[in-house]
Specification:
alpha/beta; 3-stranded antiparallel β-sheet; 20% strand; binds S-adenosylmethionine
Amino acid sequence: MKITIDTDLEQLSVDDNEVQTTLDLFSDEAFEIISGQWAKVGWNQRYVYTFSWMGRPIIQLPEDMVRTQEVIYRVKPDVIVETGIAHGGSLIYYASLCKAMGKGRVIGVDIEIRPHNRKAVEEHEMFDLITMIEGSSIDSDIVGQVKALIKPGETVLVILDSNHTKQHVADELEAYHDLVTKDSYIVATDGSMKDLYNAPRGEADWIWNHPTAAAEEFAEAHPEFAIEQPAWPFNESGLSKNITHWPGAWLRRE
Ligand SMILES: C[S@@+](CC[C@H](N)C(=O)[O-])C[C@H]1O[C@@H](n2cnc3c(N)ncnc32)[C@H](O)[C@@H]1O
């Protein structure tokens, strides 16, 4: 595909070998095309590895963080479960939102919590709202440990950000979906892999081996869940689609 931006003519042209389309550069559609390429190139350049939250690295696109904040503020979960801790920045982020709302706590699971990351999270101002569990997120003992920390009737949001193979995410969806309460979500993050398979840092099998594929099969098998991008609480634009590394990620429990 060839994308051409002509700033003099204020046009964006897309030539995909069969069809050529020319758009007004200052149109919502042109913005979406540019944003898609921006996200792809940015991922390759490790843009998401440049952010931190309250001192801890968080490996997320800021728009995904802000959209998640919109959901957390609306759902006001008692418990946020996240698989995939890494440096702990996302746990700290969710916990800081819980602290600001005066409601909620966070449970994180990682197959390997490196000692310096554990220490930094344990010494952090937000640690009183965080529990970390070390082990594979699909190990039945680990799943049991997470579930034992949640009381009946609590509102739960689950974010899956660990191993992003289709099979692993499918197993996580099966393991954790029963925790998710009505109108809350289980989020299969990082489905942008399906668009990144041909980027220099991508891998060929990502064309099929990605979290969104697991989410789609899960939604078909579990009609109580629908793939649905959460509505934006504020929108004074003509835009409607997230610029995201989490396409098709949000599974809402009906
Ligand atoms: C993308 S990073 C998580 C990023 C983090 N959520 C953030 O926003 O900064 C993925 C993490 O998943 C962990 N991981 C990989 N396989 C796992 C598994 N089977 N169970 C739990 N964690 C796993 C890795 O150790 C790594 O720390």
